[in-house]
Amino acid sequence: MEEIIFGIGITALAGALATIAGAAEDTESDIGSQGDPNSQVQLAPQMGYVHRIFNKAIAGEPPAYGLWVALGAGLAWAFMAMQINPILAIVLGSALAVFVQGVYATTAYLGRTASLSKFEQPVYVDILKSMTTVTMAHAFVAIFATVTVCHLMNGALGHPFPLPLLGLIWGIALGAAGSATGNPFYGKERQYQNQAFGAGVPIAASGNIVRYAEAGQRNSIDNGFFSAKLGGPASGICFGLIVFFELWRTVVFEPVAAGWGAILVGVVVILIFAIIDRYIEVWARKTFGPYVAPEEASS
Amino acid sequence: MTALGGPKQTAGVQPPTAMGIVLSIVLIVIALALAYLLLQMAGLVALIGIIIGGALVAFGVHFVPVGGAPAAMGQSPGIATGVAMLAAGAGLAGLFAGAWAAPLGLAIAVASGAIGGGLLMAITCTMVNIIYVFGMGIPAASGKVAKDPITGDTFPEYKSQGTEGHGLPFVSWVGGVIGGALGGLGGTLIYLELLGVYQAQLPVILGATVEQIAPVAISLAGIFAVGMFLVNAVLAAYNITGTIEGPHDPKFKRFPRAIIASAVASAVAGIVALGLFQLLGVF
């Protein structure tokens, strides 16, 4: 019994850490335009809209976070093998992984932006200096929290995979959850804030991203501020729920019916999410109703 | 034919060529023969398991609703990320669950892997709809079918002007969960087959007990399973070319070609994984 209570505590802690990791990951990727909306940031100058948005997308979020978290976890693992305290080892490993992320962000921004020189898009050195450090800070939070989750899985809950492999797996899962949940909010609601709420962006408007803020030109820190209100927390909840339910069903229900208990509970949780999803879908159809074209478009 | 001389791209069925099928069969037979030569029946059974696992992964990827960049702008339905990336996220979460349940036996481990992958997709798809509905005020509308095959909801009247649809219809949600479950199941099967072979080989090679070699065997099997999962996910993504809404999308009918390709890729990669120690011995 004590073992199960201990396991539930670790599960709750891992879920909370994963929530923080997901929120930081999505905000980091939105500041760096690393999700799918990067295509619009790259397209805008080609359509004549020169901007001051940071763009470090040379890899998708899942493989990039797979690399950084695996690196952080691998280094932490090596430090722990050198008898360094686990907390310190995870901090050191994550800090070193963040330096790699910083190098990646710098070269990616310079490379992507320099390729747009023929469209008169400048490389802003002040943007490079101010945005890179902000993405590094967010990346540190995401990497540290995820490596800690992996350490809890391996050290406290006894998962057989070594820490670096867990880092790779959960880094990719973190990027997948963050990009899936956070990208539409950053892409549609922020980059195309000038388009009507409650409708998709017409394909003809592609590239016409919002470039001006309340005062002066918009930059990616403004975008991070916006993402942190909904896209980031939603991504955090998504990744937190994934980690929590994955661990909870195993820790609590695996002893039931020779292991089938955890599988049955997993099926029940999936069915509950199906009901929630269907409820939201029906609610949206009833509340928002069919699409109505804007007056200026229809007249 | 296109200007580059390649085959004409069509939205629906793109059957494999006769040459491709013959070449695939030859490569698979060679891999199976090598597996038998290296490890006798144990090798043959393990490689067949790996091939089935790889084919399941490739098949599963076709179910996952991925809208890519247009989905992030509400211009097309699906999840706003890459095909291989999302499938990898789900499948590897399944592998995590399956590997954890491995000591409980094959049936529980593969079932746990499937549930692990399905659970990730269920939560992710639900959160995607929450963002679309509560963050963007957009109801789901498929661009490929006029009616949801499961719920019967109609879509044309909900589709925004100038887009190919948006959001995540319920059929896509179900497709995502099935895709994640198949990915987790396939990945776990590959892992278990490799683990069985390494647990039999390593104690003899290193002169140690099964308990002593367990960390090495688990790590090696895990790394190869992750690698083979990514190979199959990327192969399937190439077959899909861009975005797919799920099982109701005409592109879904392309899956036989991906299954053949991934069976060959899994056979070739699998024989390298199975013959790892013999290969190391050669060098």
Describe it for me?
The complex is a heterodimer of chains A (299) and B (283). In chain A, helix 5 crosses helix 6 (163-191). The mean pLDDT of chain A is 93. Chain A is mainly α and 299 residues long. Chain A folds into 2 domains: 2-253, no CATH class; 258-289. Chain A contains 10 helices and no strands. Chain A is flat and about 65 Å long. Chain A has helices at residues 2-31, 38-43, 61-81, 86-114, 125-156, 163-191, 220-227, 231-253, 260-288, 295-298. Chain B is mainly alpha-helical and 283 residues long. Chain B has one domain. Chain B contains 8 helices and no strands. In chain B, helix 1 crosses helix 7 (255-274). The longest helix of chain B has 44 residues, at 18-61. At the A-B interface, helix 2, helix 3, helix 6, helix 8 and helix 9 of A face helix 2, helix 3, helix 4, helix 5 and helix 6 of B.
Structural class of chain A: mainly alpha
Q: Give the SSE order of chain A as H and E letters.
A: HHHHHHHHHH
Query: In terms of per-residue confidence, which ranges of chain B show pLDDT below 50 for 5 or more consecutive residues?
Result: 1-6
Label the overall shape of chain B. Answer: elongated
Helical residues, percent of chain B: 55-70%
> Oligomer, anyone?
heterodimer
The largest β sheet of chain A comes out as: none
List the defining traits of the structure above.
heterodimer; A: 299 residues; mainly alpha; 2 domains; 10 helices; 71% helix; 0% strand; B: 283 residues; 8 helices; disordered N terminus
Short structural summary:
With 299 residues, chain A is mainly α.
Which helices and strands occur, and which strands form pairs?
The complex is a heterodimer of chains A (about 300) and B (about 280).
Chain A: H1 2-31, H2 38-43, H3 61-81, H4 86-114, H5 125-156, H6 163-191, H7 220-227, H8 231-253, H9 260-288, H10 295-298
Chain B: H1 18-61, H2 68-72, H3 83-100, H4 106-135, H5 170-206, H6 210-240, H7 255-274, H8 276-282
